[in-house]
Design goal:
Helix content is 71%, strand content 0%. It has 72 residues and is mainly alpha-helical. The chain is rod-shaped, with a radius of gyration of 29 Å.
Length: 72
């Protein structure tokens, strides 16, 4: 029965592909989880840095040209 052999081979190929797909999905989930942890840590760090800025940073943007050199 050559037809049964063909079906068995196709089924096995599909099972292998499904297995690789499951592994890939798990790896992607782990990557997303780790990235979310990093994002959360960066948000906390930014919040802490904003609290350290005097007046909450309301002084506006200042460039290096706005600063007086030390000899003035």
């Amino acid at each position: 029965m050559p037809h049964t052999d063909t079906i068995d081979k196709r089924l096995m190929d599909l099972e292998i592909k499904a297995s690789f797909t499951e592994d890939l999905v798990e790896q992607l989930n782990q990557t997303i989880f780790q990235q979310q942890q990093q994002i959360d840590a960066l948000i906390r760090e930014m919040s802490q840095l904003r609290q350290q800025v005097p007046d909450g940073g309301s002084g506006g943007f200042r460039s290096a040209r706005d600063e007086l050199p030390p000899h003035y």
